[in-house]
Amino acid sequence: MINFDYLRTASVNATLDAIKREPRAAFIAGGTNLVDLMKRGVTSPPRLIDINNLPLKNIERTSSGISIGALATNSAVAINEMIRSDFPLLSQALHAGASPQLRNMATVGGNMLQRTRCTYFYDTTMPCNKRQAGSGCGALGGYNRMHAIFGASDKCIAVHPSDMCVALVALNATAVVRSNKGERRIPFGDFHRLPGDTPQTDNQLKAGELITAVEIPSNKFQQHSFYLKIRDRSSYAFALVSVAVALSIENNRISDARIAAGGVAHKPWRLLNVEKALTGQPASVETFQKAASIATQGAKGYGQNNFKLKLLPQAIIQALETASS
Amino acid sequence: MGNYFFETEGPIDRVDGKQKVTGQALYAGEYPLEKLCYGVLVGSSIARGNITAIATKEAENAAGVLAVITHLNRPAIPGYTGEGDSGPAGMKLMSSPAIYFAGQPVALVIADTFERAQHAASLVKVAYKTTESSTDLSTQLSKAAAPRRGKSEYSRGEKNAYKKAAVWIEEDYVIPHEVHNPMELGSITAVWNGDQLTVYDKTQGVKASQRSYAQLFGVPQDNVRVVAPFVGGGFGMALRTWPYEVAAVMGARKVGQPLKLMLSRSQMFTLVGYRPHTIQQVGIGATRDGILTGISHDATAATASYEEFTEGVVRMTQFMYSCANVDTRYRLVPLDVSVPTWMRGPGEATGAFALESALDELAYKLDMDALDLRKKNYAYTDPESGLPYSSKFLMDCYDQGAEKIGWYKRNRQPRSMKNGEWLEGYGMSSGVFGAHRPAATARAVLAADGSLLVQSAASDIGPGTGTAMVKIAADVLGLPYDKVRFELGDSRLPPAPTQGGSGTNSGVGAAVHDVCTAVKEKLILAMNEGKAGFSKQPQQEWLFEKGRIGNGAESISFSDLLKNMGQSAIDLTRDSKSGEERQKYAFYSFSVHFTRLWVHARTGVVRIKQIVTVADAGKIVSEKTARSQMVGGAIGGIGMALMEEAVFDHRFGRMVNNNFADYHIPVNADVPDIDTIFINKPDPYINPMGAKGMGEIALIGYAASVTNAIYHATGKRIRELPVTPDKLL
Asked: Which of A308, B97, B131, B339 is most deeply buried (CB count within 10 A of its CB)?
C-alpha cells in the first residue's frame, strides 16, 4: 500500500513548521483535486497536512479593497454579499466552475493550485512532461482539443483549468503567501507560470510557502462585468474558452478595461493588447470587434484546438457586449 | 385479448422506488458475505502485441494478497473449447500472451481487501512486444468486409435508383464510439460451495448468465444460481457475460472464498462493449413532388479483431418508408479495439441518424416540409415483407407531436428564426423498432390472505419491469397494487428472456397476464360452483374489484373464497409465447421526436429548449414508468447528438477520455421540459395487453431531430456526431 501520514494543524505557524519538517508533504484543504491525483497515482505525497482548521476563511473589507482567506470555499465566496456587489465578476466565474458539491468543498487557495486536466497528465501510462519530466508531451500530436493556444512550449501545451483565477487576474488581484521567512505578495498575473522547459512547475510558489489570502483592489467595474464560459455542456465541464470582462464606462466611452481568458494557456491569460484597444474607445460593437480581432496575436493552434483561434475573438465580442449592455 | 382493461387503481408508483432511494436495494457488489475477498483486473497498456514477461512476485508478496492469476498460471476454464483466443463466450480470459486491445485483462489480483488488491495490481509489471495497432475506422475503410455471419446486403427493386431521381442527395454520416456507462459499475460477487455456484451479478438476463456460467465452468445448469434483483442501469452492457465476470467466478473457485469484482469507471469504457464508430453513406432520391424513388444505405462499422459484432444499422432503411427501390450494405472493419455490443436502440439508432438526417436534407432540397415528406411516403403495409402491420399509429404520432410543438407555425427557411443573439430551430425525426414477444414463463401464487405473488426470472435494469408486472397482475385480478408482489432477477424463478430489444414488457407481461388469468379462471369456476354462498346464483360475469369478487349486490374476498374452496392457495405456472400471428403481421413500435433549440450565433453553443417525443407503443401498461422511459431515451439522445464521443489517441491505440470528466453526458441543465405523448392504442395481435415495446424507440432517431433543428436554426448541416460548439463556429 502507498501509505501516507496525516497531520492536522491548528495555526499558520504550526503549518509552516510542519512543511519545513517534511518538505515533500502536501497541504490538503478541500481535496477536490489532490485526492483524485493520489487515487490515479499521479502524485503520492508521504504526508498530508490538513489545513482546514486554520483561521483563513474570512472575507473582509480592507482600506484598499477586499481580502479573501485562502480557505474560504468557492461557494462561500461566490455568494458573499460584498463579493456579489463589489466584485460580481468573481462571483460569476466561481459559479461557472465545477458543480455545487465541488464548490462547497473547494477553497480559494486550492483552486489556484489545482493541476491541469490534460488527460495525458492523469493517465500514468502516457507520456507527460508535467507529470514525469522528460517523458514527452502526449498532447502534442495527440488529443489536444482542450489545449493551449498561448504561451505553450514544445514540452507542454496544457491549460490551467480554473475559472476563478481568470476573474482574479482580470481584477489585478494579489496572492498573499507566508513562509517561515515571512509574508510575500505576488501579483496574480505572475502567480502562475508558463510551461517553458519545466512544465512540472505550475506557479511561483516556493517550497515551504502557504497561500493565506487573495486581495482584490477596489474597482469601478460593478456595472459592467461578465464572465462567459463556453463549454461542451451547460454545467460541470471545463472551458473550451472562457472570457472575463470588466469595463468602466463613462459617457458611453470605455475608461478602463480588463480582459482575461481561460482555457487558452498554462495560466489565466490576460489580454493586455485587447484592453489597450478598448480603452478610450466608445462602447460599441465596432470597438469590440476591432479589439477582439487582435486577441489571438501570437496565438497558435495544435490541430484539434485550432477552433479556439476563432472562438476566442467571438467569445470576447459576446462577453463585451453583455458586459457593456 | 383478455379483459385486461379493467383498471381500478390509476397510475402506479415504482414498486421498488423506496428501496432504491433509501439504499435498501442490494446491487451485485453489495452483498455482505463472510470471508469476502476482492479481485482487481490489470489491463494491458498496449493495444496490440504480445506479453513478453510478466512479473508478479512483488504483487504476490504484498500484504493480504491471496492470488495473482495471469495467462501463465490461469486455472483451466472447461468451457473454453476450440482453438484461438476467442470462443462462444467471447474473448478467452488470459488464454495467451496475445494482446488485442488496450485495457485487455492480463492479470487478476485477489486480496483480502479492495485497497490491497488494487495496490497489488499496481505492482504487477508487464513487458510487451508492441506491434503497430490500428484503431481508427476512418483510415481503415479499405479493409471493410462483409460480416462472416448474417446477411450483409439487401435490395428490392433497382440498386442505386436514387441517382436517377429528379431530386436526390448523397451524404456521409458519422457516429463516434459511444459507451453505455450506466451508473452502477460492472459488478459481480461469486460464491462457490463445492460445485454449487451462486453469482450476484450485474446482468440483464439471469437465465442467460446461468447458462453461460454452467457452460464455462463445466457444471450442471441447476448448480448455478444467478441473482440480480436490482440492476443499476444497463443500456445493453450487461446483455452478455464478459471476461471480467469469468475472472471473478474463476478467481473465487481458485481461492475458495467468495470474491467480489467491480470494474473501475475507466474499465467501464473498454471492458463491457460500446456503440461502435460507424461511417454511413445514404443516397436518397424523389420525384419533384416528393415521392421517394430510391434509397441506398451503406454502413461500415468498427468491430474487434478477435470477435465479430453485428447490428441492424441499415435495418430501418429497409422498411421505414414506402419506396420501391431500396438497397443496403453493411460491412465491418476489424480493429485493435475491444468488442462492441448492443447499446440502447442499438444499430437502429445509428442508422436512424443517417436515414432521418438524409430525409431532412432531401426535404430542403425539394423545398418541402420534412414532416410532409415523411407522410407522403408513409408505409401502410410493411414494404419489406408485404405484410399488414399488427398496428401502426405513426401518423397519429406525427400529427400529435407536430401540434404540440407548433411544427407548422415555424418559418421553414433555415436561419430565419431569431431570438436575440440566438438562432432558433425546429427539427423532427422518426424511430422504429421491431415489437417482439419473447417466450416467458410466470408463476402466480394467490395466498390464503388474498395477496398475490408473481414470479418470473425477468430483469429490471431501470424501465420499471417489476412495477409494470404488478400493474398487469393487479389489473387482471382486480387487486390493489399493494396486495401484489412481483419477484424477478433470480435464475431459480420460472424462465424469462434477457432484458433487451424492448421485449420484456411484452413477453414477460404476457406470461404474467396469462398466469393471472388462469388464477382468475379458477376463482370464477369456484364462483360458478357457488362456493361464495351468495343468495343468488349463477352469475354470468363476476366483478373483480379490490381483492373481492361480486355480482353487484354481494361480494366475497379472495381470502374467504379460498377458504370456502378448501384451499390454502392457488399456485399456477404458465408458459406464454407468440403464435402464428407473427407470420401474418409485421410488428413494429414507432416514435417521432420533435426538438426546438437555440444556437448561439457567435459561439456555437446549443441549448435545447423543448422536446416533444411521441410513441406508438400500443397499450401503455404503466404511464409513469413509460414516461420515464421516453424521457430517458431523449436525454440519451441529447448526449448522442451533442456530447458523447470516446476519443482515441491512435498513436497508442488508447482511449484518452475514459472518465466522466472528459466523456460528457447531459447534466440537468442540458435537459429542457420533455413532453411525452403516447398514442396508447392497443395492438390487437402482439400480446393479451396490446402493449408493444418502448425501450429502443425512445432513443432511435432522436439525435437526428437535434441535427435537423440545428440545420434549421443555422443553415449548417452537421453530419458527424457529436455537435460540439466548435463544429458550429
From this structure: A308
